Amino acid sequence: MHSHHGTPGGGRVSTGPHARWFRARLAGTGIIDMGTGEHASRVWRSRRVRRARAMTLAVGAALALGCATAGFMLSIIPSGVSVAMTATTYRIGDATLHAVAPGVYSGAGTLALGRSGPDLIAGGSAVVDDVRWATFCEAAASGAAETCRLQSGTRTLIAHDLWSAGTWHRTYSDGVRVEIAAARGVPVPFPVGR
Questions:
Q1: Nearest-CA neighbor of 91 among 78, 107, 67, 72?
Q2: Torsion over CA of 69, 73, 75 and 79, rounded to 10 degrees?
Q3: Neighbour tally for 106: CB within 10 Å
C-alpha cells in the first residue's frame, strides 16, 4: 500500500495516500530556513500567509508615504501672521512698531521705508527666536510682488512674495512657503515663518 523511497539524507519519504493529501494541501507553499547548524529547522508558510504579509508590508509602505506627505504639507501651511500699516504704526503678528520719523518705525524691531523710482524699498531688523535677522525688500510699484533678501549671520535667504486676495504668498529659497495676511503693497521685511 505504501511505497517508500530513499532520500539523500538517508531518511524515507512516504508516497501513500496521507502523503499525497498533505502534498496537495501544501502545494505552492515555501520553505523558510530557521537557522543553520545541527538545530536548524524549516517552517512551511502557505501562499495565504505570504500574501497577507505582502499586503501588510504594502499597507505599511502606503502609511509611511502618507505620513511623509502630511509632514510636507504641514511645512507649507499658512503661518497665520497678519501685517497692517498706518501712518503711525506697523503691526506684524503680536508685535507693534511705532512711527518715530516719516517712514521709520521702531519697537520690537525696526522698519525703514523709502522709494527707488516707482518701487517701494523696505529694510527691517528683528530678533526672532533668539536669532537676529536683517532684511531688505523691494516691492514692485503695483504692490503685487516683492522680493526680499534675509540675512542672519552667514545664512542668506531670498523670499519671493506674490500678493493676491489680501494675502502675500511667500516662498523662501529653501522651499518653505508661508502666507501673510496684508493689504496690497504693505511690505514684509521680516522672517515670517522662520
A1: 107
A2: -170
A3: 15
CA atoms within 13 A on the CB side of 172: 20
Whether the full predicted model's pTM is greater than 0.70, yes or no, is no
Distance CA 70, CA 25 (A): 45
- For the stretch 110-127, pLDDT in tens is 999 999 999 999 999 999
The predicted-structure confidence for 92-103, as pLDDT tens digits, reads as follows 998 999 999 999
- How many residues does the structure list for the chain? 194
Cα 124 from Cα 90, distance rounded (Å): 11
Contact, 149 vs 136, CB < 8 A? yes
Q: What is the pLDDT of residues 131-146, one digit of tens each?
A: 999 999 999 999 999 9
Quote the CA–CA distance of 69 and 75 in Å, as a whole number: 10
